[in-house]
Design brief:
alpha+beta, five-stranded antiparallel beta sheet
Length: 207
């Protein structure tokens, strides 16, 4: 007895079952779940963007520093110096301003022309006045007499201030006739302790 085999491609008796590819029966995620995931990702991205792009809060500007106080210096008053007599004046002959001291060749053989000296040391004389000659003089003798007459008052006052210790002598000198004719009028009244070379010398300022 020969058994019959089913023809190729046919199954045996029973209901026919069609073949399916592996994995075809796996369940797909629902559309709602996918949308929910996308929504969460969108929210996260929005939060990250907000954090990154949010402007930083700038600190409040500090107030400017106070201006430095500048104190105005108070000038220190400068004491007025005691004027020092100018020994000579720019004239073309012997001339000493009042208060200056000198040596003169007619009173001192160690000099050949009148020279200024410190009043604190030994000296021949001190100038006590600087009058001016009048106009109209016509010769050296008139100039000499005018100087002697013009110095008498200053010499008498200076002699009296010394309170003794004399005698004292007046010894004026000024321009010659040549300079007088050029317009020079200044001359010097002096007080000395001698009227000859090698005599008594002054050793300090006259009173």
């Amino acid at each position: 007895m020969t058994s019959e085999q089913p023809p190729p491609g046919q199954s045996g008796p029973g209901p026919s079952v069609s073949a399916q590819p592996a994995g075809a029966g796996a369940a797909r995620p629902s559309r709602g779940l996918v949308l929910a995931v996308f929504a969460v990702l969108a929210v996260l991205l929005a939060v990250v963007a907000t954090v990154l792009l949010w402007p930083e809060k700038k600190p409040a500007a500090l107030p400017p520093p106070p201006a430095p106080s500048v104190s105005t210096p108070v000038p220190t008053p400068t004491p007025t110096p005691t004027p020092t007599p100018t020994p000579t004046k720019a004239v073309p002959y012997t001339f000493f301003t009042a208060g200056s001291c000198f040596d003169h060749p007619q009173l001192n053989k160690s000099v050949t022309k009148p020279e200024a000296r410190p009043c604190e040391g030994a000296h021949d004389g001190e100038a006590i006045g600087n009058p001016q000659l009048p106009d109209g003089l016509t010769g050296d003798s008139q100039i000499s007499k005018a100087m002697r007459d013009g110095c008498k008052e200053a010499q008498a006052a200076a002699d009296a201030r010394q309170g003794g210790g004399g005698p004292y002598y007046g010894y004026p000198f000024g321009p010659s006739m040549t300079f007088y004719q050029q317009g020079w009028r200044d001359y010097t009244c002096t007080l000395t302790a001698s009227n000859h070379p090698g005599g008594t010398r002054l050793t300090g300022h006259l009173k």
